[in-house]
Amino acid sequence: MLQQTQVDRVIPFFETFIAELPDWESLAKCPQPKLLKLWKGLGYNRRALNTKKAAHYILEQHNGKLPQDLEALQKIPNVGVYTSAAIMNFVHGIPTPLIETNVRTVFFHHFYTKEASVDDKVLIKKVLVTLDLSSSPRYPGHPLGSLPESSPREWMYALMDYGSHLRREGVKITSKSKHYTKQKSFKGSKREIRGKILEILLHDPILSLEILEQKITDDLKDNENNPQSVIEDMVKEGFLEKKGDSIFIRSS
Q: Which tops the pLDDT comparison, 98 or 184?
């Protein structure tokens, strides 16, 4: 939920989501319309489907237990470098370097004031130096020698909070990252149509293709993307199902 969405916006959605789906099994069994309804308002709805795929994998491959190994975590569907490192720190308490927007801000602000296009492979070396890796099975030694015992969870929270503070104070240097891409406008985008399709079908569960397209066109008059092509994409991706001329949210 926190990917590309701010914390204060996520909190109420997270609390409702966890109350409804408190474990991997309930998430794996959750009907897709209900899952998307719980997610409604967060955007990037593909993330909701990804959580369900991950739940199935964790139940089938790990008996419902998150592995405590970086490589094993990255084999879970749609779990990448950042998410796996976050799980290691925040769930398992195993110090693992991670990089995200706020962490980048901290290190750019203090170490890369003049450089541009800094690669994460360079940045990760700086992050490594700040971690107490004595309890990490992946990093038996530490470049600074013996450090006081610390909580990787609290340290990474501190880095993120500090980065968030810097950004609120006007430090806007994320563009220094080689991996920086400016987010496209939601208005007039295919994402806007995708969100509208789910909004319509959560209210009217089954519609003909013609009526669905008309409702989209009526609500998004300034969006020039082709609704039919977006609907076809969502069918291929498993969001929607089409039977005859009827369109509805796929149940599972």
A: 98
